[in-house]
Amino acid sequence: MTIPRWVIPVLVVVFMFGGYGLRLAFTQPTTNVVFAEQTASGEMAKIEATVQGVKCKGTAGFFTKMYNETPGIYTIKTYASEHKAVFTYDPSVTSPDDIKAVMEKKLTFGDGSKRQIFTCLEMVEK
Amino acid sequence: MKTRVLRWTVLSGFAAFVLWYAFGYGDRSFENLCPFGGVASLYGLATGGEFTCSLGPANLSLLIGIVVLALIAKRAFCGWVCPLGFIGELIYRLREKVTRKRVKTIPPRLNAWLKPLRYIVLVLVLYFTWQTGDLIFRGYDPFYAIFSGMGHGTLGWITWSILAIFLIGSWFVPMFFCRYFCPLAATLDPFSRLGLIKVSRNAETCIDCNKCHKVCPHDLHPEKVDVLRHHDCTNCMECIDACPIAKCMTLKAKV
Ligand code: SF4
Ligand code: SF4
Ligand code: SF4
Q1: Comparing C-alpha atoms, which of B184, B189, B141, B138 is closest to residue B166?
Q2: pLDDT of residue A13
Q3: Total structural domains in chain B?
């Protein structure tokens, strides 16, 4: 069967934009850390933060570690390509403001300087 | 209209889209528009359900898109979308304009010997990415070097040397990087081999002028077969445009 030439560019555009749109079907995170199982009595809330500085697996791992000592966090999932982090937490123990304060904390570096690595651009309750 | 005008328009559109992302206007970083990132992510996804380094869902979904495209239209991604292939093509076309001569390609036997290099590149890139969980090939990737503006992860003089080899090689050999080094081409090859839409020649009307072979950027031989199945064909249609006999070369859907 003879195929008209215009079919190729049409296929190309359809498959490239279709392929790009298909990304919404894949929700795997960059990191997925469980700090604590939710207890039967514990409440659960969910918040999604857009974080400047979470841009690869390394920065996402470092970001998650900042919550090692924070009480009330159940899980953190990061999505580096979208610069996002999703927290589940116990709202009776911690709050979105506390979560934001932890990520924006200034850290002391080897040369003695203090710097903030992550900036919370937006937080949305889920 | 010559197909090249349409093809370059489509290629320019995709290159502009990537540039727009590279300058920071899109909702993610431009690396997320590279389908090869989907290949690099497969191990991380299979073993830990997580994307590698800065890669994300778009890398994987674009890879799926171009694999299905290859099954239908061979490596049309290379001929019609890839900005790096477009840069390579512009360089050798510029040389043709400057020297007013068609670029002489390298001897066929050497060409055949060098082509499998891309499979070695693919294996090395995947091995080290999967070992380290990092995109360590960034520093060796001309696409990343160009569109990131020698950004994070590039390796100084090593990356500059690779860029120089890419530019000089493209001047002397059409589609230099694509032919011998591109790991995405190596990934697509088996799917492209099966690709449904192929360049076909009518042997009864063909006058054996060889023009179709001379214009092929990948040095393929559509003049020797009735149906061109070679995995390197990008369906760029340069050969169809060059053929002096009407309807002698066409695109056909053939299994
Ligand atoms: S072979 Fe590789 S660099 Fe060349 S056009 Fe195809 S994907 Fe792009
Ligand atoms: S055979 Fe024709 S369509 Fe295929 S790559 Fe060569 S010139 Fe392009
Ligand atoms: S350009 Fe056309 S006529 Fe010439 S060899 Fe190729 S198919 Fe035959």
Answers
A1: B141
A2: 96
A3: 2
Asked if residue B225 and residue B181 are part of one domain, the reply reads no
B215 lines ligand 3 (CB under 6 A): no
Torsion angles phi and psi, residue A79, rounded to 5: -130, 90
* pLDDT, tens digit, 9 for 90 and up, residues B220-240: 999 999 999 999 999 999 999
Residue B185 Cβ inside 6 Å of ligand 1? The answer reads yes
Same-domain pairing of B65 and B163: yes
Which DSSP string corresponds to B187-254? HHHHHHHH-SEEEEE-TTT-----HHHHH-TT---GGG-SB---TT-----HHHHH-SSTTTEEEEE-
- List, as ranges, residues 56-95 from A with C-beta within 8 Å of B: 56-58, 79-83
Token pair 């974080």: residue: A51
Give the structural domain span for B203.
Answer: 197-253
The answer to whether the CB of B87 is under 6 A from ligand 1 is no
pLDDT confidence band for A20 (50 / 70 / 90): very high
**Residues B51, A30: C-beta atoms closer than 8 Å:** yes
At A74-114, the pLDDT tens digits run 999 998 888 899 999 999 899 999 999 999 998 888 888 88
Mutate to test the pocket of ligand 3, among B200, B202, B212, B221 (most ligand atoms within 8 A of CB): B212
What CATH code is carried by the domain that includes residue B216? 3.30.70.20
A29-125 fold: Alpha-Beta Plaits (3.30.70)
